[in-house]
Design brief:
Lipocalin, 3 helices, mainly beta
């Protein structure tokens, strides 16, 4: 019951008009971060994979990983070496939670994230949709000691 109350509270007044085009599953086509001087940086490598999902009940989920992540030497998901675990965490990001959609941006109240500092915080993203292509960008955020803005291009998944 608490989740329903949280979701309802986060819906923007123009929910029906602006949320509908985002609902669904989106596959990542490109991801780069840019420094203030415009230089492109690829913190998870040039090749990335990922999905984003907007649900009809106002939840958002995203998972992004470097395409060339190394497998653990052990089949036990908790059995990797410290180096393997660090590499796995360094090449992956995910977060989710209820979101509020507005005309050109959405705000997620992060409930679950690989990056623990985001849990309990709000993450704001800007967006534009052109047909089945979703463009998302961020304000600059600290990544690897630099202030970088994210630029992501997603394609709607059709079944």
């Amino acid at each position: 019951m608490v989740l329903m109350q949280t979701t309802t509270q986060l819906r923007s007044p123009d929910y029906e008009a602006n949320y509908s085009p985002l609902v669904g599953t989106w596959k990542l086509k490109s991801f780069e971060m840019r420094a203030r001087d415009g230089a492109a940086i690829y913190p998870w490598g040039r090749e990335t994979r990922g999905y984003a999902v907007f649900t009809p009940d106002s939840y958002f989920f995203a998972a992004i990983m470097g395409a060339d992540r190394k497998r653990f030497s052990s089949p036990d998901m908790k059995g990797g070496s410290l180096e393997e675990k660090a590499s796995a965490a360094d090449s992956y990001i995910t977060y989710c939670g209820p979101c509020e959609i507005q005309k050109d941006r959405f705000r997620t109240k992060v409930e679950v994230s690989l990056f623990p500092n985001w849990v309990g915080e709000y993450e704001d993203r800007y967006y534009r949709i052109e047909g089945d292509t979703l463009f998302i960008w961020t304000d600059p955020i600290p990544v690897g000691g630099k202030e970088l803005a994210g630029y992501l291009i997603w394609e709607r998944v059709r079944s």
